Amino acid sequence: AAGTVSIGIDDIELATSHHVVRLDDFAEANGTDPNKFRLGLGQDEFSFPAPDEDVVTMAAAAAAPIIQRSGSDGIRTMLFATESGIDQSKAAGMAVHSLLDLPSQMRVVEVKEACYSATAALQAAVGIVTRSPGQRVLVIASDVARYALDSPGEPTQGAGAVAMLVSADPKLLEIEPVSGLNSADVDDFWRPNDSTTAIVDGALSVTAYLDALTGAWTDLAAQGGPAIAEIDRVLYHQPFTKMAKKAQVHLAGLTGEDLDTEIVAGVSGAGAAAASPGPAAAHSAAATDSATAGASDNSVATGPRDTALATSTLYNRRLGNSYTASLYAGLCSLLDHDDDLAGKRIGLFSYGSGSVGEFFTARVVPGYEQHSHRQSVTEALDARVPLSIDAYRALHAAELSSAEDVTTPKVTAGPFRFAGIRGGARHYERA
Ligand code: HMG
């Protein structure tokens, strides 16, 4: 039992980049069938940073509204999870600390283990608040997912940040104490210190992800965690939303439970806003990929149990992979689109290549729906400026060397920007 104090996520915000690449444009330029991305990967678009954006600017943009709402009193720790950090030594959170004028009486550190590390940060934050219930911890997950041009991973790129405030008596989610863990040394995906793009063995990464799910789920049961029937919604790390579907099929196989495996089918271009339907509409109105799921029309009455696979993948299919932030972007999508979550238990599966898997659970606090950010997230996704494929490829290829002083052009419409490099150090400013 957790004792008398409930601890968890009190506030959450999602931010993304200035630009977007539409996978229909990408498909056209590559001569690929667009359904390969929409249905095969479950992705419509990916966010792409402007030259004056990076993990710091997205992180600050995500955390700023949280600090505006509830101030910085009691925040003595910032944990910044990323695998696309900007320095080998200094924590990226230091720049966020400065941009947000946070108090100097704080510890600020960076945490790394591929896409998993935000979950480690969240659990560490719960530990700190358990010890000192008057304190609050700012956890930020921020990443830019970059693969080599013309590689299979390229359409699964993306960018995004999720900031979460962890406190006692949280307004959104109470994190439960039992969790299932799995670590295994595997070379499925990594990024050497001298490379700006990840190296990935795609097929191995998919099986390593599913093996970690098996291991974490088995450990959750061994630790006395809830049975699948006691979990109302399930969220997965989403490198692409079809992966969440694969994971759901896998969990259904592991548990013998009939779980819904439909993700929402893509909608194109300007109509992409329709990929954020109202709460009740998320399932019924949206076209689903029944061609690949093999589901029947009467599944609503008699079919598999709906654990929100479709609802929790709405943002991610427009963001692309946001690595550490991806699972929590899925959480934002769920909280913003499901109005029947009060008191419900959510299972969360976090995966980071390399690899670590963790399956943990949380209870949704009644009243959570008063804190929905659906409108602002949808506006931010819709406001992204599309890049032509030529412009995207030129931006992708542009790399800054720390050896040269540079002033970046002002492009982003976001609240913070990367101003340039001076004396090898990166500088940031309010936009
Ligand atoms: P690929 O070459 O696109 O694979 O690479 P594919 O040719 O097998 O196609 C993918 C799917 O599209 C297949 O469906 C095809 O049938 C389907 P599936 O068999 O998977 O169900 N398809 C179509 N469907 C409809 N209409 C069509 C059509 N054509 C094909 N016309 C791969 C896919 C995932 C390997 C690649 O994108 C990649 O390397 N991605 C990066 C790695 C990755 O995301 N791995 C996921 C697990 S590891 C992880 O999650 C960790 C990570 O986030 C990093 C971290 O932890 O830091 C990546």
From TrEMBL:
Residues 184-384 form the Hydroxymethylglutaryl-coenzyme A synthase C-terminal domain. Keywords: Transferase. It holds the Pfam family HMG_CoA_synt_N. The lineage of its organism: Bacteria, Bacillati, Actinomycetota, Actinomycetes, Micrococcales. Belongs to the thiolase-like superfamily. HMG-CoA synthase family. This is Hydroxymethylglutaryl-CoA synthase. Gene3D superfamilies: 3.40.47.10. Residues 7-169 form the Hydroxymethylglutaryl-coenzyme A synthase N-terminal domain. InterPro entries: HMG_CoA_synt_C_dom, HMG_CoA_synth_N, Thiolase-like.
